Amino acid sequence: MFVNSGNEILAAPVFLSVVGGISSLFLAIADILFAVRKNPRAEIIEKILPGLNCGACGFASCASYAEAMASKATPPGLCRAVTGQGLEVLREIFGGLEKEGRRIAIIKCSGGSIEKFKYDGIPSCSAAELVSGGMKACSYGCLGFGDCAAVCPVGAIGISEANSIVWVDSVKCTGCGLCVAACPRNIIELKPVSHAYYVACASEDKSEVRNYCKNGCFSCGICTGKKFNPYGIIEMKNNIPVVLWDRVKDIESVKAAGEKCPVKVWKKIKTPEQ
Amino acid sequence: MNYILIFLSAAVINNFILSYFLGICPFLGVSTDLKKASGMGFAVIFVMALSAVATWTIYHKILVPYDLQYLEYVAFILVIAFLVQLVEMFLKKFVPPLYRGLGIYLPLITTNCAILGFTLFMVIRDYDFFESIAFALGGGSGFLLALLIMAGIRERLDSADIPAPFRGAGITLVTAGCLALIFMGFSGIMK
Questions:
Q1: Are A175 and A84 part of one and the same domain?
Q2: Mean pLDDT to the nearest integer, A147-175
Q3: Which domain holds residue A75?
């Protein structure tokens, strides 16, 4: 139609302006119609966050972390770039719910397992795990090749020369959780630093542990027993003592029970906060 | 029967990534792990189906009657971008879980060349409305398939002992080439 009337130069701009105009009109209407009211608290929080979208808090962006914080699902303090006054404001907004503090990774293994065989393959935990379940006699513990150290973005994980397992630098650790996913043994866990005591062993074996590891928890039940655990704050789950932190009134009682451990498998998270 | 043929042809034999080499950027960029790959793949299926409906209508009801076929590139991109924006707003309001699931991939693929390529093929091959939808679903599924295969291989590559010079982009491109060769084996089974 346009071509025949000799207006082909006009046809393109006219057509595109019409289509573009209609589209933008629709979008403008939709923007009002489908507007999602943001949590006003989230907007305030987002302004305090650095906006770097580094992902160290475990969320895709600062905005999604702000939303999670505004809905009180996640405590402040996961973001390490917010310090001083900003952090105080965040805590105030969050309203004292933040008792747990930032989270860091812990390794649920103390090393000390004997070796079943000499492994001379690719130096990676996931590769070693494929060869009849790893070269360590303990099928739960750390293999010590440091797959977790390789993915750590801040270099907070090192490999101990002494007992060839990994350790976490609790100052550097941002609690991003990348190592948790990287570990083929699933022995890395994110823990709030205020939950300062944990059992550094993941073995679900009972007394058999003694056959292959000098440091492992063999479920003796001293820490969970009535004598050192009168309030029932420590429970045996899958032959590993677990602290029920929501029942803990005084952290000293956890410490006292842990100190009675015959193999010293109860460990303390050491952080500058404490 | 015709629809099934079109679907299979677009999904396997004339796979957008591995036969036409369209959409290589997300193929290499988002295939690092299976979760991301499937998110991207489903978003592509969704957007392709959507743009099939929109662009077929625009082309046959507006561009052809007014003799404006030469504007198809611009018009298609404009319309697809508009629609994806609209759907994104809609999902955000009414289906938040799906919105979060598709995440950033939805706006990301708006101007993806696989999407544009698909609409242009649709025009060249003169598909009718339902054939276009079958073609879209097939093309999207093929995209998902290629991404999943690639992501699976790359997850294995992470724990493989690759010679140092090949690590990273090198081995990824070699793998992509091998995959394309394998898919070439399907060619000629049907059109």
A1: no
A2: 83
A3: 40-94
Q: Let me know whether A68 and A136 are in one domain.
A: no
A152 in the same domain as A48: no
CATH number of the domain at A150, please.
3.30.70.20
Of A15, A16, A122, the CB nearest to B161: A122
| Secondary structure, 3-state, A136-185 | ECCCCCCCCCCHHHHHCCCCCEEECCCCCCEEECCCCCCCCCHHHHHCCC
Report the b/e string of A46-72 with b at 16+ CB within 10 A. Answer: bebbeeeeebbbbbebbbbbbbbbbee
Question: Could you read off the pLDDT of A3-55 as tens digits, one per residue?
Answer: 555 567 788 888 889 989 999 999 999 888 888 777 777 888 888 888 777 77
Q: Which of A11, A12, A23 is the closest to B82 by Cβ? A: A23
Whole-structure pTM value: 0.57
- CATH code, domain with A79: 1.10.15.40
Closest chain A residue to B94 measured between Cα atoms?
A: A34
Give domain status of residue A64, yes or no: yes
- pLDDT per residue over A78-93, tens digit each? 777 777 777 777 777 7
Q: Which residues of A touch B90 (CB under 8 A)?
A: 30, 34
- Collect all residues of chain A within an 8 Å Cβ-Cβ radius of residue B74: 16
Q: Count of domains in chain A?
A: 2
CB nearest to A124's CB, from B66, B85, B159: B159
pLDDT of residue B46: 87
Pairwise CA distance, residues B51 & B132, whole Å: 10
Query: Do A61 and A90 fall into the same domain?
Result: yes
Least confident window among A81-90, B64-73, B109-118 = A81-90
The answer as to whether A118 is a domain residue is: yes
Tell me if B103 and A60 make a contact (CB, 8 A cut-off): yes
Contact call for residues B81 and A15 (beta carbons, < 8 A): no
Residue B178 has pLDDT above 50, yes or no: yes
